Structures are given as structure tokens and as C-alpha cells.
Amino acid sequence: MLSDPAIWALFVIREDHLAPILPFAAMLPTRLGSRYRLDFLTRDQAKEAMRETALTGDRQFQSQALNLLVENLAAISQNPDGSYRETLEAGAYVEPMRSWFR
Question: Which of 39, 22, 40 is nearest to 31 (CA)?
Fold first, then answer.
């Protein structure tokens, strides 16, 4: 399907999962030639992203709900073996993949 120049695909992959995919890059027309690294979001940046995204759909978060969501997303960390654990204190950054691992 990707051999059709009218069809494009966007792959969003966590950096720690990229290495196993690289051997297959030659099978893609662009060979994964364009890569952009997105830094982790701080709590304030995450709140802004969530707030602004909701507004595009004419929705808004209640302040308390937004704060709770950000705290929950920041209260997870990755172990060296790749598994995830909840921490007692929320970290400086949010973990956007949290809901996938519950």
C-alpha cells in the first residue's frame, strides 16, 4: 500500500521501541528517513496540551479534573526491564502511555 505515492503513513513510536523496527526500514519508501524526537511534557505543558485539545472540540476540563489527570499520568515510571510501576510521588513529566499498561 505504501508503494502508492498518494498514500502516506505516520508512525509514532516511543524511542525505546524504535530499535526493533529499524531492520524493516528498508521496506518503507522513505526508509524512516524523517524522524522527529518529541521531548517529554512537563506537568504544565501536559495541562496546556490537554486544555487546548479539548477546546478544539468545544469542550473544556474542570480544573480539578485536569489536575487529577496530570497527577495520575505523572505517577508512573518505567522499570529497567520495560515494565511500568506507579510511584507514590508524581514525577516531573507525564507518561502518555499509562492507560495502555493498566
Answer: 22
Cell matching residue 91: 514525577
Confidence (pTM): 0.61
The structural domain count of the chain equals: 2
Q: What is the pLDDT of residues 34-85, one digit of tens each?
A: 888 888 889 999 999 999 999 999 999 999 999 998 888 888 766 777 777 7
Close Cβ partners of 91 (under 8 Å, ≥ 6 residues apart): 74, 75, 77
Q: Are 91 and 68 found together in one domain?
A: yes
Cβ atoms within 10 A of the Cβ of 46, count? 20
Domain range enclosing 91 = 43-101
Residue in 39, 51, 99 with CA at minimum distance from that of residue 75: 99
Asked whether 5 and 32 are in contact (CB, 8 A), the reply is no
The pLDDT confidence band at residue 97, using thresholds 50, 70 and 90, is low
Q: Map residue 70 onto helix, strand or coil.
A: helix
